[in-house]
Amino acid sequence: EAQVTQNPRYLITVTGKKLTVTCSQNMNHEYMSWYRQDPGLGLRQIYYSMNVEVTDKGDVPEGYKVSRKEKRNFPLILESPSPNQTSLYFCASSQGSLAANNEQFFGPGTRLTVL
Amino acid sequence: AQTVTQSQPEMSVQEAETVTLSCTYDTSENNYYLFWYKQPPSRQMILVIRQEAYKQQNAMENRFSVNFQKAAKSFSLKISDSQLGDTAMYFCALDNDYKLSFGAGTTVTVRA
């Protein structure tokens, strides 16, 4: 089954404790992206990657890191989480640019709470 | 910078009736793409409909249709014959070559 998986689905952590949220897709997609969803703000793009070893900042990259060493994986790293990073996180992937009529597939979301 | 605005935080509609969700956007690009996504209580993001800015014809998918007014930078979604399963949050989104911007969302509740 074609899908985007995220782990963990739920995480409660404390300020300053490094964490990684994994994202993996099995569709051989070139494009992957991370978003955070907050009430009243919709989804905001954190980082995106157009291919292996190619990443770029979205609208809210501060406090986050990403890497794209393999095509299928795009982990989101919080080196020193803070309470303002408490949010619902989505990973997404597509074959290429949405402009080329490629649909973006979303993962199930990761609910992160930073105390 | 591109922005997307959804001015209706919540809307309620009777089953089988029609509801229209508004969305306005701002971009300096001439070629871009617009989307409506549905997020039910399961939190899964589901693509409802897409519109290419260079196409004048409004997109339509079954009971979902859009009214795209490029000059006014408006992109509304009409849900016809509303069903209980349409209850969800709906997001308008604007894509410009890998950068996707979302509105704040509109929660739609369909009443039986």
Short overview:
By secondary structure, chain A is mainly β. Chain A contains no helices and 11 strands. In chain A, strands 2, 4, 5, 6, 9, 10 and 11 form a 7-stranded mixed β-sheet that branches.
**Quantity of strands of chain B, as a count:** 12
- Subunit arrangement of the protein: heterodimer
Helix-strand pattern of chain B, N to C? Answer: EEEEEEEEEEEE
Unreliable stretches of chain A? none
Shape of chain B: globular
Measure the end-to-end span of chain A: 36 Å
The assigned structural class of chain B equals mainly beta
- Fraction of residues in β-strands of chain B: over 45%
Please tell me how large the radius of gyration of chain A is: 13 Å
Feature tags:
heterodimer; A: 115 residues; mainly beta; seven-stranded mixed β-sheet; B: 112 residues; six-stranded mixed β-sheet; 0% helix
Protein architecture, described:
The complex is a heterodimer of chains A (115) and B (112). Chain A is globular, with a radius of gyration of 13 Å. Chain A is mainly beta. Chain A is built from no helices and 11 strands. In chain A, a hairpin with a 2-residue loop joins strand 5 and strand 6 (54-57). By secondary structure, chain B is mostly beta strands. Chain B is 0% helix and 54% strand. Chain B has strands spanning 3-5, 10-14, 19-21, 24-26, 33-39, 46-52, 60-61, 64-69, 74-79, 88-96, 99-102, 106-111. In chain B, strands 2, 5, 6, 10, 11 and 12 form a 6-stranded mixed sheet that branches. In chain B, strands 3-9-8-7 form a 4-stranded antiparallel sheet, with no helix packed on it. A two-stranded antiparallel ribbon of chain B has the order 1-4. In chain B, a hairpin with a 2-residue loop joins strand 7 and strand 8 (64-69). In chain B, 37% of the residues are buried. The A-B interface holds A 31, 33, 35, 40-45, 48, 50, 56, 58-59, 88, 90, 92, 97-99, 103-104, 106, 108-109 and B 4, 6, 9, 31-33, 35, 43-45, 47, 91, 93, 95-105.
